[in-house]
Write a structure and sequence with these properties.
about 500 residues, mainly alpha, Amino acid/polyamine transporter I, 17 helices, about 65% helix
Length: about 500
């Protein structure tokens, strides 16, 4: 597949993946945390999520062909027996959030234009279905731009209401009386725990990172770092602007969705709700893309483990029989890496000193050699470079997922508890735990392959990846505890 994405289009897609309807819940998190703690948590989430994205990108460069990296490939390189579990976490996360988008669409459009909730959900398929059948994430850049315009409008609405009601009119005409504002203290410690995950999960965007890397025309680490840094900075500006101004407008009276605080009869608020519903429609395909890939990965994993090599060889083009090995227990061994000693690139050089051309040459010079336990590759042919996704399977997975999601959306009206559990498990796995586990095993492996010491820079990344795993597990445990024992608030 020809790679055509640019840095700009990739930043647009990653920002749109990160920033969704959760943006409107950030002021409620600030309401419980106070301004200072809310800012600190936002910066913590930005730093940890950005580092998670960076180490995932570093891990992709350890592959023979970094342009075909995926969660599945890295799982098979590091923890092959757990690959289905990791893909299942991705499926739960993307399926749950996508389903919530359809439910919200069914709630918002009838309030704006009237009509039946189910009819609006079904009608949304006219826009969503064609976008979901696009194979490349870069093809969604135009819908992402429209979605970003909706986000910009919502952000400007919150900021302008703050300027009008607080700075100009001093709250005299605010539709809801402004409550108390806490600058340095925490307003509600119980609320702090219950809303902790709102800010942490707001930065979830790793599900589309590998696709962005693979489709990038020049996928050097220099460009990837620009995309990650740019996306995190833009997202942080949006979260902080909306969070602070929305909270300062309504103080302790801030609701779970900041739009509910405004006068529903205002033409600006009506258009804002329309922008929100439109953004949900345009965000759905960005979640559907990694969901479909994860489902395909599960199918491929089952074929690798339970199909006869001859069947795989016939199905994938005759390159399988000699490349599938299994242990006496029947479980496949990890993929192995190889780096030719004469082709090894000095890992101590700084990423920012690499030119794009140098990085592209490095990717073409990598070859295969044992690094992880000296095991043989279980993947058919060059599946380590590209996970097979036949067109027929692409179509039936797409259809099956859309039908099941729409069928559930028509039956479900609210599932806040389920969505909270999905965020606590899926988001933490994708954003923190998996990147940390992958990075600890893969970063520096090219140096070990030729008997060299791991560079100090890579040692730092490996230590940071351990902390990232600990952070992810801690967030998951805390979020599950709060969700199960304190419930969810709106």
């Amino acid at each position: 597949m020809h790679s055509t994405a640019t840095v700009s289009s990739s930043i647009i897609n990653l920002v749109k993946t990160i920033v969704g309807s959760g943006l409107l819940a950030i002021p409620y998190a600030f309401r419980n945390d106070g301004v200072l703690v809310g800012i600190c948590l936002t910066l913590l989430a930005a730093a940890t999520s950005g580092f998670g994205l960076f180490v995932l990108a570093k891990c992709s460069k350890t592959l023979v062909n970094p342009r075909n990296s995926s969660f599945f490939t890295l799982c098979m390189l590091t923890y092959p027996s757990l690959s289905p579990l990791f893909d299942f976490a991705m499926i739960v996360q993307c399926f749950g959030v996508g389903l919530s988008y359809l439910v919200l669409v069914g709630d918002i459009f009838p309030s704006l234009f009237g009509g039946n909730r189910d009819a609006w959900i079904i009608a949304s398929a006219l826009i969503i279905t064609p976008l979901c059948f696009l194979k490349k994430l870069d093809h969604l850049k135009y819908s992402s731009i429209l979605g970003l315009f909706a986000l910009v409008y919502l952000s400007l609405l919150v900021i302008s209401m703050f300027i009008k009601d607080v700075l100009i009119e001093h709250g005299n005409t605010a539709p809801t009386q402004r409550g108390e504002v806490y600058w340095f203290e925490v307003y509600d410690f119980k609320g702090l725990l219950s809303t902790f995950s709102i800010i942490i999960f707001a930065y979830t965007g790793a599900m589309n990172l590998f696709t962005i890397i693979n489709e990038l025309k020049d996928n050097s680490m220099t460009n990837i770092v620009k995309i990650i840094n740019g996306s995190i900075i833009i997202s942080s500006i949006g979260f902080l602007s909306v969070g602070i101004t929305g909270y300062l407008t309504f103080g302790s009276n801030t609701l779970g969705n900041i739009m509910l605080n405004y006068n529903p009869d205002s033409i600006f608020v009506i258009f804002g709700n329309f922008a929100l519903a439109s953004m949900l429609l345009l965000s759905f395909p960005l979640l559907f893309h990694p969901l479909r890939i994860a489902c395909n990965n599960l199918v491929v994993w089952l074929e690798i483990n339970y199909k006869h090599p001859a069947q795989l060889s016939e199905y994938y083009g005759g390159q399988v029989a000699n490349n599938v090995t299994s242990t006496s227990s029947g479980t496949n061994q990890p993929i192995t890496l190889t780096v030719n000693e004469e082709d090894l690139v000095d890992e101590t050089s700084t990423l920012l000193t690499h030119s794009p051309q140098q990085d592209l040459e490095q990717e073409n010079e990598l070859a295969t050699n044992d690094v992880l336990d000296g095991a043989e590759s279980p993947l058919p042919g060059d599946m380590e470079q590209h996970t097979p996704f036949p067109h027929v399977r692409f179509c039936w997975i797409t259809i099956a997922l859309l039908v099941s999601m729409y069928a559930l959306a028509l039956r479900i009206t609210s599932f806040a508890l389920v969505l909270a559990l999905v965020g606590a498990t899926g988001s933490t796995s994708i954003s923190f735990t998996l990147p940390g586990l992958f990075a600890y095993k893969l970063i520096g492996s090219d140096s070990l392959a030729v008997g060299q010491m791991i560079s100090k820079r890579d040692q730092f990344y490996r230590k940071g990846s351990i902390l990232l795993v600990i952070f992810g597990i801690s967030v998951m445990i805390l979020s599950l505890y709060v969700t199960l024992f304190f419930g969810t608030e709106s």
